[in-house]
From TrEMBL:
GO terms for cellular component: cytosol; protein-DNA complex. Residues 116-221 bind DNA. It comes from Actinomadura decatromicini. This is Response regulator. Gene3D superfamilies: 3.40.50.2300, 6.10.250.690, Winged helix-like DNA-binding domain superfamily/Winged helix DNA-binding domain. GO terms for molecular function: cis-regulatory region sequence-specific DNA binding; identical protein binding; phosphorelay response regulator activity. Residues 3-116 form the Response regulatory domain.
């Protein structure tokens, strides 16, 4: 992954990101609004997009929809909004991750690298370490004699197959229980608690099965 398209209407931030990402070896294209972003992405398809949600011409979510109409390029959203709903909408539209403003450049770079690793092994995840346990996605087993219910397994499998990616509550509920369960967030709390008790060394302070409050869950390898 080498070409990054940065979309933001703040000139100083745009300049800072361009300088810092280029210093780390990335080719960087920039756009100050959504229309320019879509045009730039079509002219020179990026390997990753860093996208501000608050753009002056069209909403960032609409830019995500526009990109998702023809490409699966990873998208990391930048959001300066305090509420989680905008981030949830961005994730539902197809964003891969988000970073809240103000942010440290090292955090953003770490997210970019995590997405790059995930894309490079997409479709190849067959096993994962969760604490002291090895999850075998092919054999559908967990080391150490851990037994999972079918629902626990399905939930864990979705997270493990997307290492580092934030999976929204709605996505998980729809995938595991069906579209009529999109509001039953207590199901997720219950089953995630069960998975942590079985797999995490310290369930009260999980290191791998993480909650992003109000938004979703993430498997951190």
């Amino acid at each position: 992954m080498s070409r990054v398209l940065v979309v933001d209407d703040e000139p100083q931030l745009l300049r800072a990101l361009r300088i810092n990402l280029r210093a780390r070896g990335y080719d960087v294209d920039v756009a100050a609004d959504g229309t320019a972003a879509l045009r730039q992405a079509g002219a020179a398809p990026p390997d990753l997009v860093v996208l501000d949600l608050g753009l002056p011409d069209i909403p960032g979510v609409d830019v995500i929809h526009g990109l998702r109409g023809w490409t699966r390029v990873p998208i990391i959203v930048l959001s300066g909004r305090a509420g989680s709903q905008d981030k949830v909408e961005a994730l539902e539209a197809g964003a891969d991750d988000y970073v809240t403003k103000p942010f440290d450049i090292e955090e953003l770079v770490a997210r970019i690298r995590a997405v790059a690793r995930r894309v490079s092994v997409a479709g190849e995840v067959t096993r994962a370490d969760v604490g002291e346990h090895v999850v075998d996605l092919v054999g559908k087993t967990v080391s150490g004699g851990v037994r999972l219910t079918p629902t626990e397994w399905r939930l864990l499998e979705i997270l493990v197959r997307n290492p580092g990616k934030l999976i929204s509550q709605r996505q998980l509920l729809t995938s595991v229980w069906g579209p009529s369960y999109q509001r039953e967030t207590h199901y997720l709390r219950q089953y995630m608690a069960q998975l942590r008790r079985k797999l995490e060394k310290d369930p009260a302070h999980p290191r791998h099965l993480l909650t992003e409050p109000g938004m979703g869950y993430r498997f951190q390898p």
